[in-house]
Amino acid sequence: MAKVKGSIKIDTERCKGCEVCVPACPESVIALSKNVNGKGYHYAEMVNDNCIGCTNCAVVCPDGVISVYRVKLNS
Ligand code: SF4
Ligand code: SF4
Fold this sequence. Notes:
Layout: E1 3-10, H1 21-24, E2 30-36, E3 42-46, H2 56-60, E4 66-73
Antiparallel strand pairs: 1-4, 2-3
The protein binds iron/sulfur cluster (2 copies).
Residues 6, 8, 24-25, 27, 29-30, 51-57, 68 line the site of one iron/sulfur cluster.
């Protein structure tokens, strides 16, 4: 059966560091960076490769800065 693997892209310059996406992820993929973006916010970033492409993070982000990509893997 084909598994689905996901990945996210975060527009870090538009992220406000609100952290809403962090608990929304069932795979604990997202955390806030120690670094800040141009506006001084700690931005969200991927911290592991466990994304399953569920789109929860993109749905809850109030600023719509997360894009989710899904890839089917043959295994
Ligand atoms: S798409 Fe789902 S699994 Fe992937 S980072 Fe977002 S909430 Fe987590
Ligand atoms: S929910 Fe959106 S704005 Fe908030 S920390 Fe996550 S990516 Fe940034």
